[in-house]
Amino acid sequence: MADEMRVTFLGTSGAVPTTERNPSAVLLRREGERFLFDCGEGTQRQMMRFSTGFDVSHIFVTHLHGDHVLGIPGLLQTLDFNDRTDPLAIHAPHGTRSHLEQLIEATGERPTYPLRIHQVAPGDAVLDREAYTVEAFETDHRTKSVGYVLIEGDRKGRFDREKAEDELGIPPGPKYSKLHAGEPVEHDGRTIRPEEVVGPPRPGRRVVYTGDTSPTAATVEAADDADLLIHDATFGEDHRDRAGQTGHTTAKQAAELANRAGAKRLALTHISTRYAGRGGQLEDEARAVFEGERAFVAEDGRAIDVPFPHEG
């Protein structure tokens, strides 16, 4: 579907899985493309369970702790068994390529399809497409780590068909396309400029995935006016000190950071097993301070659509 963007939470647990939560993995589908952010143990089964499809083109790894990467070897092998021929790119923090290669090769031969491992640093444009970019930003997790933000470019302004047809007398046809594309047209002896019938550019969407991290200024910058911020919320306020010691964030801290960034929606993830059955505590702590549209604890299998700004 054109303009579609959907986020599916495949794994929302902390370092240890539970009967309800898998280790970290998030799948983002944008207009037919599928991107996987982290790939914890069991991710491929979650992809089957929640019917996301396997045609992922890029895997974005935030860091190499096991709960974020142990699903990679199995997924790569399954893609090979399924006769994949399309290339697959894995992006991971600078200085981790050899560790990723060892992880993959320890379980067998490299896949027969093209596999590329790219090392990224904060500030890098990991993907740079005409319609969007994926950029890496700095996180703080006691190891080499990055977060990722997908940023769409501005869309064309709305075309005022009623004005074009009724006020200016331009019949539907090729001139509409030219005007919407930013080209002036001649009609009835005068030049019609695009700004007469086309509104101002409309902003695209912004989705942020932090992986594991303490609160950082870089995340605030990356999540500026974000439509969806997916943030580490491993602990509640009852373990705030523990969060700081281990390079994590509390639900309340994540909400406070989201406020500073002006994020519209906040998804809390990487939930510690100590909150099994008590996710409502974290949600309540975040909602008590969050000023955006909605804060929620992500759950495995939950899928949410990300609308364009002002169209949700």
From TrEMBL:
> Catalysed reaction per UniProt?
Endonucleolytic cleavage of RNA, removing extra 3' nucleotides from tRNA precursor, generating 3' termini of tRNAs. A 3'-hydroxy group is left at the tRNA terminus and a 5'-phosphoryl group is left at the trailer molecule
Picking any one GO molecular function of the record gives: zinc ion binding
- Which parts of the chain span the membrane according to its record? none
Q: Which cofactor does it need?
A: Zn(2+)
The record's InterPro entries line, in alphabetical order, gives:
Metallo-B-lactamas, RibonucZ/Hydroxyglut_hydro, RNase_Z/BN
Q: What highest taxon heads this organism's lineage? A: Archaea
Arranged from A to Z, the UniProt key words for this protein are: Endonuclease, Hydrolase, Metal-binding, Nuclease, tRNA processing, Zinc
Q: What is this protein called?
A: Ribonuclease Z
Query: Which species is this UniProt entry from?
Result: Halapricum desulfuricans
